[in-house]
Write a structure and sequence with these properties.
Layout: E1 12-16, H1 20-30, E2 36-40, H2 43-52, E3 57-61, H3 71-80, E4 86-91, H4 97-102, E5 108-112, H5 116-129, H6 139-154, H7 168-176, E6 182-189, E7 197-203, H8 212-216, H9 230-237, E8 241-243, H10 252-259, E9 265-270, E10 281-287, H11 295-333, H12 343-360, E11 364-371, H13 374-381, H14 383-400, E12 406-409, E13 414-420, H15 424-440, E14 451-457, H16 464-480, E15 486-488
Parallel strand pairs: 1-2, 1-3, 3-4, 4-5, 14-15
Antiparallel strand pairs: 6-7, 6-10, 8-9, 9-10, 11-13, 11-14, 12-13
Helix pairs in contact: 1-5, 2-3, 6-7, 6-11, 13-14, 14-15
The chain binds guanosine-5'-triphosphate.
Amino acid sequence: MSEQEGVQRPLSGVYLNPAAPRRAAFAQACAGLFTQLRLAGDAGDAARLLAGAPDSLLVLDLDGFEIGIDLAALGELVAARAGAPVLVLCPYAGARWLPALMAYGPLSYLIEPLAEEALRRELGVFLRALVPETEAADPCALLAVRAAAQAALAEADAADEADGGAGFGERLCAALLGWPGVCHVSLFGTGAGPRPRLQARAAAPSAAGIDLGAIVDGSARAAPLQHAFPGLLAAASGETVLLDDPAKADVPQLAAALRGHGVRMVLGLPLPGAGPGAPRGALCLMFGAAQRFGRAQLATLSDLAQLAAFGLRTAELARENEALLGRVTELATLDALTGVANRRHGEFLLEGEIRRARRYRLPLALIAFDLDRFRNVNDAYGHPVGDIVLRSVAATARALLRSSDVLVRSGGEDFQVIAPHTSAVDGLRMAEKLRAAIADAVIPGCDHVTVSLGVAQLGETESADSLVVRVNAALARAKRAGRNCVELAMQ
Ligand SMILES: Nc1nc2c(ncn2[C@@H]2O[C@H](COP(=O)(O)OP(=O)(O)OP(=O)(O)O)[C@@H](O)[C@H]2O)c(=O)[nH]1
């Protein structure tokens, strides 16, 4: 039979692992697959053995290398192979070593743990095919994913969540759904709290029913699977986690939940933290079929994780900026005591309403009112009660006004109402309603108070200053007329 018919060609092998019992176990399980199998305990041993048999398959088993792994020494071994076959056995929580080793030369890999039987089977399949791992994924598809992810990043600082649009996380997840074979994408971030939270997700129809809440949210009791879920493991440890078979997580419930939705492989990619030892979350990609990544794919995935971290931070900054800007605007435009527009902002708004009234040929009324004998209130009850009175009067007036009207505190106990689309007659009605409501209002700790009011309608060519002078003159007449009444301004 020929090789094309699937018969393994005779091949010697060099197996490298630091633990003697593990070397012995490998030899017992797989020696029969090789014409000759030699065992090495470190990179130097392996290099010597390979020098004598350069065509051998190098099996680099990374299990047990966790502490103090010398990637450079292992990488030199890979580089020295000059294209001869290399198979890396990689623990699923050590997948970040793969791109590092791939930088030295081509290699294939299997994700651990593999039971003896499965290891023999997978190794047999590998030896029959024996081609170095190719850059399997379609480069156009990867480019498209990158471009979509970059477009999501470009809009990360847009304040779109407020107006109902998808946020950066949703856009990024949707972009990554374009990665070949991906059926579900989720993004976890630590945000303000210590534990990573699900920030966004996107799913193909086949995986839309995956209940991530049941897997990852809530208390450990409510979600017993969270310690095994690659997305959360990656976020918590800062390590790439690649489960090429859900069963390898050794949590039957998780494996069943994923398999039930057609998930065969899960990749957890940590997002680089803002500082050392500060993971900020993870991207979690679920695949409908197990697949091998080449150097280009792993490099692209790592770029995408960087981009996700950057985008999350940008979106966070945009939200913080917006909140700060809102606060600054509030401080600059609102009166601290009553919460209505302050005098300066009132002047600005009046100018705007005058321009608008002119452009659309609509009437505009200005009402000015002032508390009657407020000095007596302060004297009788004290300033703090006086403040309560001012707040109460503002609240009573605001409750009566339309949303298009603007209430302004124009001085200590002086207020104005800018009333667009309102004639002198309507303004008089409004003023009378204000007067009656304020006179009737019950104010805790104080007697009833009254206000005097002036009303003016904007003249055809009149300026804001002139309108204010006229309305104040009307208010002064109301005071002279005995207070608690309304006067219309002269033209
Ligand atoms: N409690 C309090 N009082 C204020 C505030 N701003 C101004 N006032 C008081 O408002 C009073 C205004 O007094 P006046 O201008 O004599 O007017 P009035 O006593 O209301 O008399 P008429 O307006 O003529 O009816 C003064 O006692 C000010 O101290 C404030 O923010 N809080």
